UniProtKB/TrEMBL annotation:
The chain crosses the membrane at residues 76-96. Residues 105-146 form a coiled coil. The gene is LOC114643583. Keywords: Coiled coil, Lectin, Membrane, Transmembrane, Transmembrane helix. It comes from Erpetoichthys calabaricus (Rope fish). Residues 169-301 form the C-type lectin domain. Pfam families: Lectin_C. This is CD209 antigen-like protein E. GO terms for molecular function: carbohydrate binding.
Length: 311
């Protein structure tokens, strides 16, 4: 144990010598530096002191300039950044506005197109409704004509109908033939249809028949149910009623001739003209007596078929 301690004591002196030497050198350097500083402080005219003053003055002179440039650069940097931010915001707002406007324009165009389409459909529907309304009005007029209201309180109607091919007028049905027969066969044919040769009882009925004959074009001569076969000059209707002179519509020709004239064809027809037909000519119109054997068209008359409707 004593040997080990002895050995250690022999090793440590070497290390302690080097350590002590380093500490002595450091102390000398520090003392020299302090002495130099003190000399400079005591002697302002020394070169070291002057050099240090110049360096300090240079730093003092240079510091404000650098500060100013730094401020300018900083402001410029802020300005550029602000400009970039403002530009970015402007571009964002611009494109958002443009996008919104484009979207609104597209929406308006779609709405306009849709509105035009709807308007066209509504116009088409309106035209259809107007057409239906006109048809209903026409049917209502026909209903009023064929089914007049007999009681305004109950709104009940009596409907008068005519067979197909017949024409309704004042609750009577009229048939205008296209083929021709003599007067007797014409009356028999009307009887087979449930009627008789027409009996004209008013000026309105006469005008109605004239208008209907005019619509049918050429061959404007039709047998009516009037004759003086029994007694010459005394005319009777097919139902046996005598002709009312105040309700007769004889024709007067351009030569001053007055119907009936009972023309006997220069003696070839001794019986003369005993049957009456309604004749429509460009220069005159009215009743004419004629030979009963003549082939003419005919006008048949029949009562309407009535149905009572209680509304």
């Amino acid at each position: 144990m004593d040997n080990e301690n002895l050995y250690k004591s022999l090793e440590k002196p070497t290390e302690d010598i080097y350590t002590a030497l380093a500490q002595i050198l450091d102390r000398k350097r520090n003392k020299g530096a302090k002495a130099h500083i003190n000399r400079v402080k005591r002697d302002p005219s020394s070169p070291s002191h002057l050099e240090e003053c110049r360096d300090t003055e240079t730093v003092i002179r240079e510091s404000p300039s650098k500060t100013i440039w730094k401020g300018i650069l900083l402001k410029l940097l802020f300005f550029v950044c602000g400009a970039l931010v403002a530009t970015f915001i402007f571009l964002v707002l611009y494109y958002l506005t443009a996008f919104k406007q484009t979207y609104n324009n597209d929406k308006l165009q779609k709405n306009e197109s849709f509105t035009k389409k709807e308007l066209k459909q509504l116009q088409s529907q309106l035209e259809e409704l107007q057409q239906r309304n006109n048809e209903l009005l026409s049917k209502l007029e026909a209903l009023d004509e064929q089914c007049p209201i007999t009681n305004n309180y109950t709104q009940s109607r009596i409907c008068s109908g005519c067979p197909a091919g017949w024409v309704l007028f004042n609750s009577k049905c009229y048939f205008f033939s296209t083929d021709k027969m003599d007067w007797y066969l014409s009356d028999a044919d009307c009887n087979s249809l449930g009627g008789h040769l027409v009996i004209i009882e008013s000026y309105e009925e006469q005008q109605f028949l004239k208008n209907e004959i005019t619509k049918r074009g050429h061959g404007k001569s039709y047998w009516i149910g009037l004759t003086d076969c029994q007694t010459e000059g005394r005319f009777f209707w097919v139902d046996g009623s005598p002709l009312d002179s105040h309700k007769s519509f004889w024709d007067t020709d351009n030569n001053g001739g007055i119907q009936p004239d009972n023309w006997k064809n220069n003696g070839l027809s001794p019986k003369g003209e005993d049957c009456v037909h309604l004749q429509i000519l460009p220069y005159s119109s009215g009743w004419h007596d004629g030979f009963c054997e003549r082939q003419e068209k005919r006008i048949c008359e029949a009562a309407t078929q009535t149905i009572t409707l209680n509304m």
